[in-house]
Design goal:
The complex is a heterodimer of chains A (381) and B (116). Chain A is 31% helix and 18% strand. In chain B, the strands form 2 sheets. Chain B has a 5-stranded antiparallel beta sheet with strand order 6-5-4-7-8. Chain B has 2 domains: 44 residues, no CATH class; 62 residues, OB fold (Dihydrolipoamide Acetyltransferase, E2P) (Beta Barrel), CATH 2.40.50. The chains are: A alpha/beta (381), B mainly beta (116). Chain B: InterPro entries: ChsH2_Znr, NA-bd_OB-fold, Thioester_dehydratase-like.
């Protein structure tokens, strides 16, 4: 194994994962979803609420804070907590910060959750982009993350010849994975023709380019690698956690090139922490709010050269084996982390990538808030 | 939706003027309107009229509205680092790199038309 650059690498682990059902209408409160996912993750790890001394989430005014969830579960006063503002782009930084807290000794066991009724209560797809730039966009009807991604996808098409068929191939492949995933909301196979026939949303995006607004929650348990080895699941080590990177695509003195995401800046730091490179990654969970975000991250995380994402799909590594946000459900990032954990424990059932040893899991690559976050996870050997 | 940094910019748009801030120290043109120059961090600036001509970077056709709405992303010809968004005012779709001109509409808004 290559030399690791940070003392932090591999010192913490994911010891448990938990989900609620994914649906279009949960019929329960966001608080209920959070509690169910947390209890499921603790049960998976073989731990109880009393074992938890840290709690973390992220939200954009759409969920319940740790200060509500902790007491609701009868959790004692946390020694560490995080209530991070932000949507998809910070989904993995929450886990990374929990790992830092554990590595630094601020907490022993942290539960990270994301709970949203993103279909029945808070329509994620119609949420306005945060930030002061909105006043220069909303008057023209440009208000949603979907539209910013579509604008960037068109630029990629113009510059590199990326096609609708390339995007469609991503949707078709992820649906094929979801067919094998009992948790997935969408389990009917689709073809490229189905993709091309799906209705326009915002050209160049069709309906099947878009993820599913979902009611649901997901939670993961972060603890020390040492402690994880004493628990009942195969530990999944956090080899790297990075966040930041990227300039605004929307405004500023020199707005970034929208065909290159914040992931391009972050990737070398992430791989460097882990002492691994793209060729060492067995399976990737790439933030797929839209098909295009998968394609551009295949480039920016170094699996192929810039502009070659479309052609690379023919030979790509396995990605989004749960069906992703396009077909499993959209819980804003933690369900990517949880699927990576399942793959590395070799517990992914029909979806298992044989012998998976290292996984990349990523967050929204910077088209809304100008930053991203990602993890490299490794099966404990 | 304006803020204390941007209100004066929108007032100019309402009067049909396309102006951006110019840093009094280093001369950098900047948009959106903000207090500090992001290059030299000076706080002094003045309004500078810019030619209302731009090039099309990209566009989307929003199909959930009736009729569909075309939204363009453009860069000013004389200040290519200045990105603006607006509605496309033509029967056909834009083309990549096309030169376009600003039109001022009620709202206030800056929209874009093909340049003859």
């Amino acid at each position: 194994m290559a030399k690791r650059l940070l003392a932090f690498s591999d010192r913490t682990a994911l010891a448990g994962i938990g989900y609620t059902d994914f649906s279009k209408n949960s019929g329960v409160s966001t608080l209920t979803l959070a509690c169910r996912a947390i209890l499921a993750a603790l049960d998976d790890a073989g731990l109880g609420v009393d074992d938890v001394d840290g709690i973390a989430t992220h939200r954009v005014g759409d969920s319940v804070p740790p200060s509500t969830v902790g007491p609701a579960l009868g959790m004692g006063a946390p020694t560490w907590y995080l209530d991070q503002f932000g949507g998809g782009s910070v989904s993995h930084s929450v886990v990374g910060q929990a790992a830092l807290a554990v590595a630094a000794g601020l907490a022993e066991t942290v539960v990270c959750y994301r709970a949203i009724n993103a279909r029945s209560e808070f329509r994620m797809g119609t949420a306005a982009s945060p930030g002061m730039e909105a006043q220069y966009q909303v008057p023209y009807g440009l208000a949603q993350p979907l539209q910013h991604f579509a604008m960037a996808a068109r630029m990629h098409m113009i510059r590199y010849g990326t096609t609708a068929e390339h995007l469609g191939r991503i949707a078709v492949r992820q649906r094929a994975h979801a067919v094998k995933n009992p948790r997935a909301l969408m389990r009917v196979p689709i073809t490229l023709d189905d993709y091309l026939a799906s209705r326009w949303i915002a050209e160049p995006f069709r309906l099947l380019d878009c993820c599913l607004e979902t009611d649901g929650a997901c939670a993961v348990v972060v603890t020390s690698a040492e402690r994880a080895r004493s628990l009942r699941r195969t530990p999944v080590l956090i080899s790297a956690a990075a966040w930041g990177g990227g300039d605004s695509f929307l405004s500023g003195a020199s707005p970034a090139d929208p065909t290159v995401t914040a992931a391009a800046e972050l990737a070398p730091r992430l791989y460097g922490q882990a002492g691994l490179g793209p060729s060492d990654i067995s399976v990737a969970m790439l933030y797929d709010c839209f098909t295009y975000s998968v394609l551009v991250q295949l480039e920016d995380y170094g699996f192929c050269a810039k502009g070659e994402g479309g052609d690379y799909l023919e030979e790509s590594l396995p990605f989004n084996t749960h069906g992703g946000f396009l077909s499993e459900g959209y819980v804003h990032g933690l369900n990517h982390v949880a699927e990576a954990v399942s793959q590395l424990r070799w517990e992914a059932g029909d979806r298992q990538v044989p012998g998976a040893s290292a996984a990349l899991s990523t967050s929204q690559p910077g088209y809304v808030l100008p930053a991203t976050s990602a993890l490299i996870l490794r099966r404990d050997s | 939706m304006t803020d204390r940094d941007s209100a004066a910019w929108w007032e100019r748009v309402a009067e049909g003027r396309l102006e951006v801030q110019e840093c009094s120290r280093c001369g950098t043109l900047r948009f959106p309107a903000r207090a500090f120059c992001p290059r030299c961090r000076a706080e002094d600036w003045r309004w500078r009229a810019v030619e209302p001509v731009a090039e099309v970077d990209s566009w989307i056709v929003e199909r959930r509205t009736t009729p569909p709405t075309t939204i363009v992303r453009v860069r000013l010809a004389r200040a290519p680092h200045v990105v603006m968004y607006g509605n496309w005012r033509a029967e056909r779709e834009p083309s990549p790199g096309e030169r376009v001109g600003a039109v001022f509409e009620d709202g206030p808004k800056v929209n874009w038309v093909p340049r003859p």
